[in-house]
Amino acid sequence: MMVRYRLMRSQDVPGVFKVDQACFLHNWTQDSYHAEIKNCLSNYIVAEADGEIIGFGGFWQVIDEAHITNIAVLEAYRQIGVGQSIMNAMLALAQEKGCVGMTLEVRGDNQPALNFYLKNKFTREGRRKDYYGLGMDAIIMWRYGLE
Ligand SMILES: CC(C)(COP(=O)(O)OP(=O)(O)OC[C@H]1O[C@@H](n2cnc3c(N)ncnc32)[C@H](O)[C@@H]1OP(=O)(O)O)[C@@H](O)C(=O)NCCC(=O)NCCS
Question: CATH number, domain at 82?
Answer without folding.
Answer: 3.40.630.30
